[in-house]
């Protein structure tokens, strides 16, 4: 099973905060900026970690007020490592 890819639209000023926060969950996910101008990011989520990462995103929405909107659900597409 490969890495799960999910696309999200966020606020430009939040990209680094999200990257540091998400990647602090060692080995669970990485954040890649697809388009810095439109603040489109891709999460590469390790197999078996999707629920934890999605719960983290929901918590950031609720507690931090960060706007995170999934743009495209590409969860069925995976990258081979």
UniProtKB/TrEMBL annotation:
Pfam families: DUF4911. This is DUF4911 domain-containing protein. It comes from marine sediment metagenome.
